[in-house]
Amino acid sequence: MTTGEGRKPKASKPRIREVPAVSRAIAILRLLGGTPDPLGVKAIANSLSLVPSTCLHILRVLVAEGLVKVDSDTKRYALGSGMLSLAYSVIERSGFASLVQPGLDRLAQTWNITTIGVEIQSNDHLVVLAISRSSMPFGLHVDVGQGFPALVSATGRLVAAFGDQTWSQLKKRFKSIRWDRPVEFNTWKEEVELTKKKGFSVDRDRYINGVTIVAVPLFDQLGRTRYTIVGAGLSEQLDAAKIATLAKEMQHEAKHLSKLILPRG
Questions:
Q1: What end-to-end distance do the CA atoms of the chain give, in Å?
Q2: Cβ atoms < 10 Å from Cβ of 70
Q3: CA-CA to 137 of 20 to 30 Å: which in 42, 65, 231, 241?
């Protein structure tokens, strides 16, 4: 009979204890970061299914820490400047941000588009780490440090195509995405499958009407998407042939960066 002596016990994953107040504070920050206009307590509480009094207490702490600001007249809340210092501290320590910037600048000037370096922080969240704007009188309302839902736009298709979420999980998250021109889930699913084959994704006039967004992934040693390079320009200036050429150049840049940032083996 085997006693199991000499065998190493299986390592168990550390148990993470839930801290509701922290989770709620993070949810509030992400909501405010993904909303273009300031929100009142009631709107925040309703969006996150929080008790209004609890929501107000958390907001007051976030305001005191400078992470959130409140308009004294409208009593509406928005992200505060304290978030910037946190964001820039992360960016300064990110090798990706400094390494991707020259490539973003080249692509932006060559194609007269806005280019963005994005980190996929989780199945739920993206954050902008670098950006380059062209000389064209066009630009996205996006800044370094800004966060977005993970399934949004072209990068969202990459997250779905190369991530580990089931279609059932993706469908639940998909319902919360806001589009200028909404797309049905089954149509989006077909686009995700096409993304797997092509190795890049395209959002044309869906997320932002009149804007075409192209995204390419950077894979880690396990084949997971950790970062993406995004290019956005006016749809009238990017036909199918130009999109294919742009995607190829972006893939070349991503491949080069992957070797520097995410070495395999």
A1: 40
A2: 18
A3: 241
